[in-house]
């Protein structure tokens, strides 16, 4: 499974992830993310929504991004 995101295509603070290619439900993905202190919203059975809060620092966003990429790679 390949994860691809082009920052030039992003025009929002929201990212939607389809968890079906990972072979897990959105709820399972959300539980795993929460184990790393990252809260994501279950948006559907196989979709999570990730939102960067306006109070989040650059370091917070980088931590979340790097941690979620590592999480996806570990599945």
Describe the structure.
This protein has a single domain, classed as Aspartate Aminotransferase, domain 1. The termini are close together. A hairpin with a 2-residue loop joins strand 2 (41-44) and strand 3 (47-51). 12% of the residues are buried. The protein is built from two helices and three strands, in the order E-H-E-E-H. It has helices at residues 26-34, 58-74; strands spanning 14-18, 41-44, 47-51. Strands 1-3-2 form a three-stranded antiparallel beta sheet, covered by helices on one side. The longest helix is centred in the C-terminal third of the chain and has 17 residues, at 58-74. It is of the alpha+beta class and 75 residues long.
Please give a quick description of this structure.
This protein has 75 residues and is an alpha+beta fold. It is built from 2 helices and 3 strands.
Spell out the helices and strands N to C. EHEEH
Quaternary status of these chains?
A: single chain
**Helix/strand/pairing class, anyone?**
alpha+beta
User: What fraction, in percent, of the residue positions are helical?
Assistant: 25-40%
Strand content: 15-25%
Which outline best applies?
A: globular
Count of helical stretches: 2
Main sheet makeup: 3 strands, antiparallel
Strands, total number: 3
Q: Separation of termini?
A: 10 Å
Mean pLDDT: 90
CATH architecture: Alpha-Beta Complex
Q: Measured on Cα atoms, how large is the radius of gyration?
A: 12 Å
In CATH terms, the superfamily is Aspartate Aminotransferase, domain 1
The CATH C-level class name = Alpha Beta
How many domains is the backbone divided into?
1
Biggest sheet, strands in spatial order?
A: 1-3-2
CATH overall fold name: Aspartate Aminotransferase, domain 1
| Low-pLDDT segments | none
């Amino acid at each position: 499974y390949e994860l691809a995101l082009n920052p030039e295509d992003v025009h929002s603070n929201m990212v939607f992830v389809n968890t079906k290619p990972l072979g897990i439900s959105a709820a399972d993905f959300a539980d795993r993310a929460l184990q790393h202190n990252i809260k994501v919203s279950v948006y559907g059975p196989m979709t999570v929504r990730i939102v960067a809060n306006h109070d989040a620092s650059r370091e917070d966003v980088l931590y979340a991004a790097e941690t979620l990429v590592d999480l996806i790679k570990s599945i």
